[in-house]
Each structure stands twice: as C-alpha cells, then as structure tokens.
Amino acid sequence: MPESNRLLEAYQQTKYQLPGHGKRNIQVLKDAFADVDGNLDSDIYGKGEVIQRFEDKMAAYLGKESAVFFPSGTMAQQIGLRIWCDAKGSRKVAYHPLCHLEIHEQDGLKRLHHIDPILLAAPDRLIELEDVLQMPDDLACLLIELPQREIGGQLPDFQTLVSISEFCRNKGIKVHLDGARLFEVLPYYQKTAAEVCALFDSVYVSFYKGIGGIAGAILAGDKTFTEEAVVWKRRHGGDLISLYPYIISADHYFDQRISKMGQYYEEAKELAILFNRCEGVHTLPTVPVSNMFHVHFDHAKGQVEQVLAGLYEETGIGVTGSLRELDSDKCYFELSIGDLYEKVPKEELHRAFEVLAERFATLRQA
Amino acid sequence: MPESNRLLEAYQQTKYQLPGHGKRNIQVLKDAFADVDGNLDSDIYGKGEVIQRFEDKMAAYLGKESAVFFPSGTMAQQIGLRIWCDAKGSRKVAYHPLCHLEIHEQDGLKRLHHIDPILLAAPDRLIELEDVLQMPDDLACLLIELPQREIGGQLPDFQTLVSISEFCRNKGIKVHLDGARLFEVLPYYQKTAAEVCALFDSVYVSFYKGIGGIAGAILAGDKTFTEEAVVWKRRHGGDLISLYPYIISADHYFDQRISKMGQYYEEAKELAILFNRCEGVHTLPTVPVSNMFHVHFDHAKGQVEQVLAGLYEETGIGVTGSLRELDSDKCYFELSIGDLYEKVPKEELHRAFEVLAERFATLRQA
C-alpha cells in the first residue's frame, strides 16, 4: 500500500481529528432540515421568501445594499469581475498569482469572459500597496482575497487595505473582495464584516468553509450591481429553479457557527504553537490570523506520511488525511479549525504532540 | 383585486388540481432523503459514489458511453454546443426559434460562448427535414427539442428524426437532443430512451419536469465529450463541492415516476378531449403526444380568468394558476400531467367540465 493511502486510511480511523467540522456526509443536510417545516415553499428562479430573506440578511450583515445567492463562488466571482469590466469598457483585472480564478477554475474567466488578469505580487507573499500603485489606470477591478488561502491564509494589516481601497477609488478602479473565508478573519481584524466590506465595491462570501454548509455563495454590492449579477447568473446556468437545499443549510450553519469564529481563531493559534515546537516543522503564518494555517515539513512527503500514520495509529488523533509535495524534501498540508478541535481532550492532544516532536527529532538525526 | 390575482388565489384554495405532482415545497426534499443513510458521504467536486453511481445509471438508461450531472440544463446545453463548436472550429449552431437557449437564458450562449444560432422553421411549427436540408455545411451542431415545449409539446414522427440524424451525420454536423421532457415522450414513440438517443451525439435530460425532482440535469455522450464537459462545468461555476441534494432527489423521483410516463400520457389525452369539447377552447396539440399540452382560449385573458376562478370556487377543481395573453382576445396556458391528476375523482372532474362547457357557451353568446 502506498504511504499516501496508508495515511488517509489511518486518518479515517482516528478517534479525534484536529481540523474541520466533521464528515461531509448526508447528515449535514438532514441536520439543517430537521426543524424546517415541509410546507415551506421552494424559491423559484431566484424569487420567494426562502431566498429573499437570506439575501436580505446577508446584505445587512455585509453592510451592502443588496445580495444575490449563487450556487458557487466560481460563478459569483467571474460575474462580479465581468460586470466591473463591462462598466469600464476594459478587459483588465488584477489579482494575486495564486488567486482561485487563476489556479482552480480551468481559466473560466479567460475562456468565458475574455478577461485578462494582471498578476500582482510574487506567489509567496501578499499584495502590498506598492504593487497596487503600479497597476495600469485602465484596469477595471482589483481582486483582494482575505485571507490569502494558498499562502497559509495570510492577511495584510487593516491600514494597508484602507490605503489600497482609497487609491483604487481615486483611480476609478473597483475593488472586489474574495471573502471565501471573510467570516474567519473578523476576529483578527477586530472589525465587523460591514467595516471590512465598506472598503470593497463588491464582495463574495462562501458558506461551506468556516460556516460548514453544503455549498453556495453570496455576491453583494449596490443594487445596480446585483441586478446585473442576476442576469449573468441566468446566463451561466446558475439561476436554478430551486436553490433552497443550499440556502437553508447555509442559513442554518451560519447561525450555528458565526459566533464561533473567535474561538476557532484562538484554537488555531494554540495549535500552531504545538506544531512549531517540532523540529523541521513550521506553520505558515507562524502565528495564524484566522482559523486556518499551513503546516510545512522539511522532509520528504513519504517520510512525513510514515510519521503521521504512525502517530494516528498510536494516539488516535488525526492531523491530516493528505500531504502535498513541494519538492523532493519538502511537503505541507492545510489545516482549518472547526467544531472538531474542541472535542479533542487536551491531555491526549499534548501527548500526541510529544510523540510527534520525538519522531521528528529522530527523523532529523537519521 | 385584479382577475389574475383572483385566479391564482382561487387555484391555491382548490381541493384538487389537474396538473403537476404537488407543491414545490421543502417536503419534496424531505421525502427524497427520508430513507437515505446520514453516513453516506457527499460527492466532492464531481467525484464519489453518490454522483458516479447516478451518472453511470443515466448513461446506461440513455444508451450513452458516459454522463455528467449538472446543476442546470442551461449550463449543460450551452456547454454541449460549445464543445461541438470547438471541435469543428465553427461558431454556428441551428435550433428552433423558441428554443430554450434563444428565449429563456438571457443570451448566455451568445454572451458567454459567442455562438451564432441559426433559427430553423417558423416559431409556430416543428423543424422538418426540409429545414434541415437547407442548413449551411459549416454548422457545428443542430439542436432538436423533444417535445417542442413552446408550441404545446409537439413531436416530429420518429422517421423524420431518423432522416434528420442521418443527413446531419453524413454532413459532419452533430445532433444534440434537448430532452428536458424526453422521458415524457417515450410512450408516444414506443421507443426506449436509448433508441431515441442513438440518433443524437449528445443528450440533455432534466429531473424536475416529469420526474419532479428539485433541480439538476444530465448531459450524456461519448467519453471524450463528457470529459470536456466536466472541464467546462468547472469553468461555468457548476462543479460544486456537493451536488448530492439534487442527485439523490433526482434518483429518488426517477425511480418513483419513470414507469408512470405512460399513465401521464394517457391521462393527458383524456383530459385534452374534455377541454376540446368546450366552445372557443382548444388544445395544442389536439391529441397530446406526451404528458403536456397547451390550452388555448378564443377569449380575452380577463374573461377567461373570471370563468376559471368561478369554476374553482364552485367545483374545488383547479386547472391552472395563471394565463398568458396572446393578443387582446386570445390567451393560453400550459398543462403537464403528474401525480395529482389520478387523485381527482372522475365524477367531480366530469361535473367540472360540464360547468366549464356551460360557462364558455354563455360567454360565446354574450
């Protein structure tokens, strides 16, 4: 059996897991619908109480005039950028080289919307004000992702965001927020969602990351913006006759977890310290700024898989089900804190990290 | 109160309704999931047992090599046509003037894919072989909708389909089936789905028309075709992390209703006879060829609303909740038979149509 399969199998058999809210299974839907009256009418092509109420609730929470529910963030964000491009008569947007639209969407933005992205900053660091100052004036929109997921969920300081926003607005460049994990960074910024979103002309948020829903996204902004977004939603094939399976579950888990983001953040910081105590292991960022971080190993993937699988089998505590190779002697994984972390007995957690530290110390000497 | 509101309200209060399967409410989802084990894993971005099993089942049912589940038919069909266009290096497709892509999708095909449709046939009749013979050779794809919904769900005879398919294949033109209501026409053709689909290179079917699911569609064809479709699904924002709310309900209601299509068809023919007995009322087609037909009135919309609302209040039998105006003295509505029709006591049904015939006779004399 390859080590990667052994790692996943050992992980699946652990009693406790550090990341996540639990399994993505059908029970997630059943729990969300358990107390919903069967007589409640479906939304119908974007209309009806179920969808309107949730869109209004999210618009208010994000401090925007209007909000539209989408089946996916991929669809919502391409559409947001397209609207800003059409408004300016430009095909240029700017974003980070590891932006979701650049690396995870099969070039939908380019192939469907013929939009040319300019990549700002180096892949391994955040977009800073200096990068923004060099953008061309005919740019339609700058996309900022908070936190920058692919580099461990790093964040610029709030004043940098304010400066970027001011600069763009003076230049007539729209600013769009990829807030896939926006809820998760509010405890770090010590701001409300509306205070962060006020710096942006349009905002996307997701309901299956920290919130733990089934799928779905909100795109918010001015009424004129969302009215256009609804038309594009139809064009993309996202204006489903019924989106309520995602809406009702998003609403359910939003209410259940939005107040826990501070707890997840504190737990992430606590857990990162434990990882950083192991030799040849470090977290990115060193001190997390949300519920997520990356764990990097100065060892080959196969070696780390062996160490971790052994840990799971010995302690019953699972850390990750898979690793990504960086080069022949480096690998990493992403970890997001959810409801499961608080269920791990602290004593067993610390014992597991003692074992882990020993193993990596041994690996170092070998 | 406007007559149209009165009609809808009276309809909603009827004891029996002739069309449909029942209310589109949350109970539809609850029923589909009642017997599903909560431990069943979600599909993840198009992978996993839940989605694979249903895609395989539908590929086999449609007689195609491979099938892909989509959140919507709008997305599935645009993508199907795009793939055939790219394969031929052409931007031309042909379809009926009242094709869903032409009138219900905010020009997504044109705005996202830059595809130029050629409109075949007049809006009020089916595409015939003669129309197809005149198509240009550089056409990438011909789309045929079975049944042609916007003209009452009419169908070409099967031999015409065979001839159209043969002609296109000889010319190197792909043939795509808009089978939103394919299941519903199989009893008329007395063919299996696979026998019909064999005439087409790609096929779309829907799960919330006759099947009565929540939403969702299948796009089927050769493996090379569906592999491309999966990439485009990601680009469109349709490759959701979890599509199981639609997949499981589609599967549930497919199993429940696929064998009832013959019954719906017979009931539609029976019901059309009753409408056609009323003066100034006729169905299109006169003899239905599926579970659906249109009911046309040679009277102003307001007058018919008054007659129908009166009928509902007097007999407790609802026929439609809304009418569409054709011109100042003509209107119509669409009717699709589902599970509700069999619940209407025959005696009450015939009494209602006696009342209706009387009312229209009176209206004629006035």
From TrEMBL, chains A, B:
GO biological process terms on file: glycine biosynthetic process; L-threonine catabolic process
Keyword match rRNA processing: no
Source species, domain of life: Bacteria
Molecular function GO labels: L-allo-threonine aldolase activity
Cofactor: pyridoxal 5'-phosphate
Keywords: Pyridoxal phosphate
Every Aromatic amino acid beta-eliminating lyase/threonine aldolase domain range: 40-294
Alphabetized Pfam families for the sequence: Beta_elim_lyase
Any one GO cellular component localisation term in the record: cytosol
Regions crossing the membrane: none
Family: Belongs to the threonine aldolase family.
Name assigned to this protein: Threonine aldolase
Protein source organism: Alicyclobacillus ferrooxydans
